Amino acid sequence: MFEPVIAPSGTLLGLLQRGRGDGTLHALTAPRSEALSALDHCVLHDPRHDWQVENRSLYYARLYLDLNGGLGAIQRHLFDPDDTLDPDDSRTGLALSVLGHLASYDRLDALRLLRSYAEYGANWAWALDELALRDDDAGLRALAVPVLARFPADAEGEAALTEAVRDAFEPRPWRLWAEDPRPEIGGRVRAAAERGSFDRWQRQLAPAGPRPGWSVRAVLAWAQEGLERGAALHVPAARCLTAVAGPEDRAEILEAARHGADAERGTALCYLADANDPGVLDLLEEAAQSPSRVVADIAAETFERMRSVAAVERARQWAGRPDALGAAAGRVLACRGGAQDSQLVLAALREAVRGEGPDAPTLWPLVDGAGRLGIGCAAPVLRHVYRETASSHLRGRAAQALAATDPSFAAGFAVECLWDCEESTREVAARHAETGDARVVNRLRRLAADPAEEDDVQSAVRSRIGPDAPAV
To answer: What is the pTM of this model?
Structure first.
């Protein structure tokens, strides 16, 4: 998947790509054709950096409903010849999820489109999962023949069918088809399910990796072999060392932490950190200066996971260092520091935004830390992150931090957050938005009545407008 191109935050397209509440509010006041064009662009060209943690589908589906938008552009996208040439989930997954939500709002055109794509589309399994949650039994049973026709009745086809049944995210259609009296339907699905269960049992009997009785040297070698294959195994290898190493092995592990190969060194450092070895902090500082990027990154990552008082004290010394260990120290203080560390956390936050921009991964714990410590001076930086980041999850964290640091949040960003794409952000808004704004009261009532809204959001709404809530 190509990295998405995100429009400026001040444009309608940029707002919708980010999933901001202001995107919906602006779309509802913009010319309808312009709003639908921007909405179609977002759905057909997934703007998310990580679709596994960022939500957009319900946000876009609600906007299609509000604009009474047609589904012609989605249909053309799904059945484009590129669907055969590029069957990757990222090309069609967002569009299918939007159709799923629209089907839950009784849009029959969306339901029919999902059924058709499940029959003929390359990403049929995703469409089937959406239908499993929304379609009736008759609709799902009608798909048995076209779906099973995808799997030839030969060894290769049966193996592919076994994998599809075993790995199905939503098993409901397969369970319905297993009840079919026809041997070419029910018989095939039942046999595939049995083979899938047997495959799982075989894998459990033959696990890969360390065994009881392995030596320290064997575990370190396993980690190094993994790195050479492209797999980072230093964390699980460190856990294995915990099981096999004794006090008599400390010298060997210290030697590996100082002079071992990259993965061996990383494994030893992780093990010593988990054991709170008295010399580990000095070893981490030494490793952070290694010419090996792998070792330096493992040192910073390992230090950041430490929970000891000594680690926090060392973080106060290292914060501000111009390397990965200095950045990790800032994050440690953001997560586990006290009020006396506010200036160090604020400096780390400002430096991260200035040096890496509003989408830097290091911002997540720093933004949380600014809110946890109630750093009022961080509000301008948090507002900048909120406006500019392309990550809806990071924006939600910024909103939570602003609720704790910015007195203007309730009458400002909290209002637009009621329309945000992330349910956690809508929950924050439902608890803080100033109800003097008529839009807030109307939106709270709509969220309370929406069956697609998350339970946590509706609980927050009821705390504001329920029978026991203060008058709004």
So the answer is: 0.89
d(CA 358, CA 187): 54
What confidence tens digit (pLDDT) does each residue in 312-326 have?
999 999 998 999 999
Distances (CA, A) of 161 to 99, 192, 313: 26, 6, 56
Task: Tell me the two tokens of residue 112.
Answer: 């029919």
176's tokens = 């319905």
Asked if residues 222 and 211 have their Cβ atoms less than 8 Å apart, the reply is no
Q: How many CB atoms lie within 10 A of CB 147?
A: 22
347: which residues sit within 8 A by CB, 6+ positions away? 319, 320, 330
Q: Is the dihedral of CA 366, 369, 375, 379 positive or negative?
A: positive
Give the pLDDT confidence of 279-299 residue by residue, as tens digits: 999 999 999 999 999 999 999
Alpha helices in 359-418 (DSSP H): 363-372, 379-388, 392-405, 413-417
How far CA 395 is from CA of 88, 151, 368, 388, 422, in Å, comes to: 28, 43, 11, 9, 9
Counting runs of H as helices and runs of E as strands, what totals does the chain give? Answer: 30, 0
Query: For residue 136, what are its two tokens?
Result: 């009736």
How many other β-carbons are positioned within 10 Å of the β-carbon of residue 231? Answer: 11
